Amino acid sequence: MNQISRNCQPAARPDGGSRGEFGLGRTTAYQMDMVTHTDSPPIADYGLIGDLHSCALISKAGSIDWCCLPRFDSASIFGRILDWDKGGYFQVAPTGIQSVERRYIPGTNVLETTFVTDSGTATLTDFMPIRDHSHEMGPREQAPDQQIVRVLECSSGSVHYRMECYPRFEYGSIVPHAHHSSENTGFAHGGADAISVWCSAPVRVVDDGFLAEGDLSAGQKMWTVVAYRYRFSHEVDSWDEAELSQLLAETIGYWENWSSICTYTGKNREAVLRSALTLKALTYEPSGGLVAAPTTSLPEVIGGSRNWDYRFTWIRDASFALYGLFILGYTAEARAFKEWLEWASTGRARDLQIMYGLGGEKRLTEIELPEMMGYQHSRPVRIGNGAYSQFQLDVYGEILDSAHLYRKFVGEIDSEYWEYLLRVVLFVLDHWREPDEGIWETRAGRQQFVFSKVWCWVALDRAIKAARALHLPGDVDLWRRVRTEIREEILAKGFDQQRGAFVQAYGSSTLDAANLMFPLVGFIKADDPRMLATIRAVESELTSPQGFVYRYKDFDDGLGGDEGIFVICTFWLVDDLILLGEIDRARVLFEKILSYSNDLGLMSEEIDPVSGQMLGNFPQAFSHLGIINTAVHLDQAEKKRENSSSGGS
């Protein structure tokens, strides 16, 4: 594995920029011209803002190129990231840009983008106001008021700016009717969607959209607001600067208060907190569901067809993310997710799905949108996700594990939920021998995936621990016997003696990076010769030149094309190195993968091993929970080593 010095300078970015410990990213004037006038910019160019119902992705050019309202999984209002010509966008920026720097206001999801032009400097502040409607809403309802607020302030010299708002509803398929409501307001509607646009400068209707432009001198501001409208309402708000300034202050205050809960004070705290803020921003507040990512169809390889919709709640992703939030002190999110899980999944255990809609919806029919060009011409664009109907045994273990974590960090399990968990345990007892589609949602038929069997072991292990600790009813003796039976079968059939490693499925010789989780869930110790050999095999055969981990190689998963390295798998490898006591190697690899997050600290699902560019949906909850979990475990291991070497306790 390639290594870098722990004392080296921040790694050079493949796009020519650089990133230290969340310093401001810089884009040259040439790059800005490319972003503004050609095609979708690199995925890393985007920042995220949100209101706990939906979100917006904003490029370095000040353009909102992705926003679905009123929910994460609604049709796009602005979707240029998936079709540069007809997807729609909302851009605010000065002209004559020479360079760009940006950051989040510390401890918040309020984004600041500073433009240096040939005549002055201006900062664009973007946010979506947070309003708490959870006490009065059901999990399938939407917030009655949603806005995107943007303010451009000139700080030196003078700038000429343009505000361009071109909504395109239903993933670009509907060009809305746009018209004036007053000198400073406009209204656009089409199909079931409508938005109002307000600007402190006069607004013109141009080509079915809205345009405002003007000049700002030092100290002057231009405000603009897009508001989503419900039920065919033609109401248009008129705003004043004092009111919007108050909304900004309240939004900053909300995020700062939330960030203050974070108990982590170790190394990489900024990366950890940014990841926590990102996970929170990916949460649908009315239900407590967590989207895997807020985007659809960002490709796993440019020009490829592995393009999926991630705007749903996977039980696996959400339960893994729970642990990351638990160890940072965020217990309210755990309660909310437990309520979502009960709402969505309580019923017959055999009807349990691997994923649900944000309000608990079960049918997530996958369709293609042939009229959309796709991100940088990567087709098809898909909405919905056909994997919702797959059978994946690991989800049963993840439900029991999330209950175990809830019990450990938050509180006891009530009797009603325990009755449901007992049904889950019974299902595992009856079905653990069956083949399934596995964690990677293959589309080439079911197999006896080893990872899935281990999670059946986890399900019984966690049930045993809960029943014993809380004196809950259950046939613990039977659970122990079957847990032992599952373990013995995995060791006999899931470990390839000739290959000397745990393999992907019974009878296979293929390595699978998911098996790196075995020590992390307590199935086997990392230094067990069988597990150690598996870790070394992954390092030798499933890594890129940088040492980053692929999910698998040379395996027919029923899908065409290639993919990049899978970010979460690299964090699992780092976690295993920590368990092996190889702390320095773990630190090197952790810092290296962390350096591939963008200038704002955001991470996608995958990374192109050649170009270093981000791939897949963005930002990815899986990747950010990996940052949190691994940073905390690595810091704890280093402190323990320091205490041991100094003779401390």
Structure, briefly:
It is built from 14 helices and 27 strands. With 649 residues, it is an alpha+beta fold.
Strand content: 15-25%
- As a percent range, the share of helical residues equals 25-40%
Please state the second-level CATH architecture of the largest domain. Answer: Alpha/alpha barrel
> For the record, what CATH class of the largest domain applies?
Mainly Alpha
Distance between the termini: 34 Å
Q: Are there runs of 5+ residues with pLDDT below 50, and where?
A: 1-37, 133-137
Our count of helices gives 14
Total tally of structural domains: 2
What is the fold named in CATH at topology level of the largest domain?
A: Glycosyltransferase
What class do helices, strands and sheet pairing give?
alpha+beta
Largest sheet: 16 strands, antiparallel
How would you describe what is shown here?
- The protein is α+β, with helices and mostly antiparallel strands and 649 residues long.
- It has 2 domains: 26-235, Beta-galactosidase, Chain A, domain 5 (Distorted Sandwich), CATH 2.70.98; 263-644, Glycosyltransferase (Alpha/alpha barrel), CATH 1.50.10.10.
- The strands form 6 sheets. It has a 16-stranded antiparallel sheet that branches. The chain has a 3-stranded antiparallel sheet with strand order 25-26-27.
- A hairpin with a 2-residue loop joins β14 and β15.
- α9 (450-470) runs antiparallel to α10 (476-494).
- Residues 1-37 and 133-137 have low confidence and may be disordered.
